[in-house]
Amino acid sequence: MLREPTFGPVRQQRWKRLVTVTDPDDFFSQLDEAELVTGDDADSIQSSVEQTESAEHQESATTASESVTSTKSRRRTVSPRYVARCRFCRCKFKQHRIAVRHEGRCDAEPVSQCQYCGKSHTRTDDPEIHLKTCEAYERAETRLEDEDDSDATVTDETSEAANSEDDGHFSRQFIDTQPHEFKAYLKWDCSDRENPLRSYFGLRSLQGEHDFEKHGQLRTSIDIEGEELNVEFGFDECGIAPRDSPNFELDEVREYPIRVYPSAYSSWDDARSEARKRAYFLISPRWPDIESKEGYSTLSNPYDIEGYDVEVTGSYWDFEQYPHILQQALSALADRQGFRYSNPTLLHPEDFAPDQIHRSSNIIDGELHVRVKDGKTGRVISFDGTLHRISHLLSGDQEGYTKTVRDDRECPGHYYTTTIDSRRAGQLIADHELAKEFKHYHLRNPDAVEGTALENPKICVSFQNSIHDGTLYWDDLDQLVKELDEALLNVLEWSNIPAQPDDEFYVADDYFDVSGSRRWRKLLPDQLPRIESKQDDQLVATMNQMNSTDAELVDTLLTDGGKTSPKELAESIGVHLDTIYRALKRLSPLVDHTYGEVQLGSKYIAQELTGYIDTVTGSIQSGLENALDGLTRAESYADDDPWSRWLDRYGGKISRTDDADPDELDVGFKPSTIEEARRILREGALKWSQVTDEPIRNFGFEFAPAITTVDGEHYAPKHFADALGTPG
Question: Where do the segments described as Disordered lie (predicted)?
């Protein structure tokens, strides 16, 4: 007798239907209705698999009757060997469920087409690489440049028509994302010059000409794109020991900060406190065999450059502008030399030429953002919103620095962040390599900006150097801009916020304009459902092949949590280390095994396994292989509405009541904390609301939910509707 698994009532009924033994003689009545696969001319997988059930039964029936049928007769009655064939990759399928899973995920299926030459692209193709060799694209770009040069007096009406036409023929128009925070270390090697450190001595000479005690910081000004900016010069103590060289006659080495900020502000601190456009440069000398003073950390100069190391930070400038701002500021400071000394040591701004930046220069931080109207970002920050789902599906079980922050203390959605590492960045958007933080936030004191553009939240994507695999060099700046821009545009699209300029959704401020430009960016369908579906497929397929060691290994990971080693697993389960390695190979779709560490692949996988592992273990111990087969089929034919999936996922059981009281909702899944229990119930309320089209608060009137944590703490709120908010 089959042992019934412990999951939700809807899936429980499907299980009973699927594992019921059917009389093999009944299968012969289906043979006349079955249709053979026609071969390569089939229009799609879906059209090829409709008769799958009868085809599988035919094969079983033919096997059962082999002893009483002739060879010739058996050839007439046996079903086709394959039930479907993909018309893109030409793969053949023997089972209906595998064919259905393959549909829409085939790497050979064309998903786009070059609008210039008409060549088809698959999911793995990079359109930008194709454009580098596309002759039709080059001809179109050349024609556009010629038209722009020849038509210098186009009217506004003609220009708008031309732009509209270009949108259909050239790269797509997207909202212009605004650069925000930036930090880098830029280096210049001047060893080919007669005096490589001449500009450093020029800065030292400028320091000596100015009376800092009497006048404070040395100031001058520059003009950038019509905006007047203050340039502020000073000097700092540092930990660099004086150079042991006859050409270096200084007893004390200084570092020289240069600050650039709007002239409307009296100081750098005032401009920073009001989050204005600004740039900061700290110039430090470098030479081979450089040493630190006693008590200071060792300096790094891996390429033995003789020149300059400049720490760069700033806000609201395009990233590539910072070297130009530095050089312009140095030119303005050079003009201030000679006021006290008749023969000063001169600064040479050309030593900091933007096209001479050393290849070891690297980027630490970079961020792009948009400002969206308050109330339009619900799909970004909701309990089942984009930021939460990115963390839930892509972050490993207690892995490294994966972090999610949700802070609503100041206002709803005040500060939400989700961080993913380099590997998971590629899972979210193909070809991406940079670790990123996705952020939704309001200003620190929202009440202070009420009624202004700043009361609306920002949505940002930033580079996270602290968890990035490797170094992001200055030469990789284009990659940084492209990845941040693409990631932000995709998050907007997945959250039902248009990726094009739209005054209904976006709000302009002093630095962000609701404007767009044409550029090549990879805009994908929401990848999170695809990732969830893929993990579901891997979960069911792997569980169908588990043995007792596999089940114990998974149960140990679920019980202990976090990371462990293969050796510790072997000792805990009581098997040989080689057995653990073989189990890890079988469980590779669900378990991450790198550098001697083992952990479950994601929080989502851990959550799903928690609901199934008891059933799988019991089935293995009882030797009921058909039970797992039933589980596989139950998953293949599961209801697809979000509420049913939530009930099945968390083992939700509904007990109807006869009176006006809410129905009892008992959740079988055991969370680790009460806070997690609240989140699970709120997620269920959201799924119920999506299916019924009822206000989410009404969930609290329809059901009386109850859930118990792993520590035995019972959570059964009496007024759960109040926790869900007012009807909307």
Answer: 39-76, 141-172
pLDDT at 19 over 90: no
Average the pLDDT over 639-655 and give the result: 76
Contacts of 25 (CB under 8 A, 6+ apart): none
Contact indicator for 502, 161 with CB cutoff of 8 Å: no
- Mean pLDDT is lowest, of 64-78, 160-174, 463-477, for 64-78
State the Cα–Cα distance between residues 28 and 58, nearest whole angstrom. Answer: 7
Percent of the chain with pLDDT over 70: 61
| Contact by Cβ (8 Å): 458, 471 | no
Distance in angstroms (rounded) separating the CA atoms of residues 539 and 101: 13
In 3D, which of 198, 407, 163 has the Cα closest to residue 307? Answer: 198
Instruction: Please tell me whether residue 405 adopts helix, strand or coil conformation.
Output: strand
Return the SS3 of 132. coil
- The pLDDT assigned to 64 comes to 43
The length of the chain, given as a count of residues? 728
Q: How confident is the model at residue 728 (pLDDT cuts 50, 70, 90)?
A: very low
Instruction: Print the SS3 string covering 2-42.
Output: CCCCCCCHHHHHHHHHHHCCCCHHHHHHHHHHCCCCCCCCC
User: 45: closest CA among 122, 121, 101?
Assistant: 101
What are 459-494's pLDDT values in tens digits?
999 999 988 988 999 999 999 999 999 999 999 998
For helices 674-692 and 642-650, angle between their N-to-C axes, nearest 10 degrees: 150
| CA-CA-CA-CA torsion sign (629, 634, 635, 636) | positive
Helices (H), 433-565: 477-494, 527-543, 548-560
Supply the pLDDT for residue 424.
Answer: 80
- Angle among Cα 691, 697, 698 to the nearest 5 degrees reads 65
> CB atoms < 10 A from the CB of 597, how many?
13
Helix (H, G, I), strand (E, B) or coil at 367: strand
Q: Which two tokens mark 277?
A: 């456009």
Buried b (16+ CB within 10 A) or exposed e, 678-702: bbbbbbbbbbbbeeeeebbbbbbee
Place of tokens 């553009």: 453
Cα 642–Cα 645–Cα 648 angle in degrees, nearest 5: 155
Which of 441 and 186 is assigned the larger pLDDT?
Answer: 186
Write the DSSP symbol of residue 292. B
Domains of the chain: 34-109 (no CATH), 182-360 (no CATH), 364-521 (no CATH), 530-636 (1.10.10), 642-724 (no CATH)
Answer yes or no: are the C-beta atoms of 135 and 141 closer than 8 Å. no
Q: What is the pTM of this model?
A: 0.56
Query: Mind giving me the DSSP string for 349-366?
Result: GGGG-GGG--TT-EEEEE
Measured in degrees and rounded to the nearest 5, phi and psi for residue 179 equal -65, 140
* Distant-in-sequence, close-in-space partners of 322: CB < 8 Å, separation ≥ 6: 182, 184, 186, 279, 312, 314
Distance CA 399, CA 393 (A): 13
| DSSP three-state, residue 368 | strand
Q: State yes or no: pLDDT of 534 exceeds 60.
A: no
pLDDT(401) > 60: no
Q: How many CB atoms lie within 10 A of CB 106?
A: 18
> 3-state class of 695 per DSSP?
coil
**Contact indicator for 357, 474 with CB cutoff of 8 Å:** yes
C-alpha distance from residue 204 to each of 207, 238, 252, 641 (Å): 5, 14, 10, 71
CB neighbours (10 Å) of residue 710? 13
pLDDT, tens digit (0-9, with 9 covering 90-100), for 223-255:
998 999 999 999 999 999 999 888 888 889 999
